[in-house]
Fold this sequence. Notes:
Blueprint: H1 7-21, H2 32-36, E1 40-41, H3 43-52, H4 57-64, E2 65-68, E3 73-76, E4 83-84, E5 87-88, H5 96-100, E6 103-106, E7 110-113, H6 120-136, H7 138-148, E8 160-163, H8 164-174
Antiparallel strand pairs: 1-3, 2-3, 4-5, 6-7, 7-8
Helix pairs in contact: 3-4, 6-7
Amino acid sequence: MVRKTPKKLLKKFQNEVNNTIYDFSDCSICGICCKDETLTMKEPDINRISRKLAIDKKSFLNQYTHYNIETEETVMNMPCPLLKDNRCTIYDIRPEICRNFPVFILEEGIVIINNIEECAKATHFFESFLDFCSKRYQDHYKNLIKNNHFPKSDSSVKNAVLPIKLIAAFIIWLNKD
């Protein structure tokens, strides 16, 4: 049985990761996540954004989102209609999925890094993480390469699934000053 980490602790760690990864690249360079990703909208996101836009919730849903029958989720229309010149017009109140992208912390103690081959922020974060592991956790590094089939000389890794303990050690190492 997989032991779940308390949600409050995960949220705190997710925020720490988000704050750390912020400096890895300027998101306004490409905005690819706002053009090609599936941005799932949660109820608090919908309420917050519709208030900010000064429109009622129903109008927001009709104008900016659609309902995905397969996943039973409300998703933002793509490209994101709130993206202007590769900049988010609601950055301070952007949806949770946008705040967390490209690194997501799951309850099972797993970290997923998305769009490594496309997102400069994810690429730099992942490459720095692998470099960190190769120097400080060589056995883990070898296991990561072997078990996750990361190419050794090719940067075409799309997503990485990693143990939270290694990411936590990496974040601590990055923030040691």
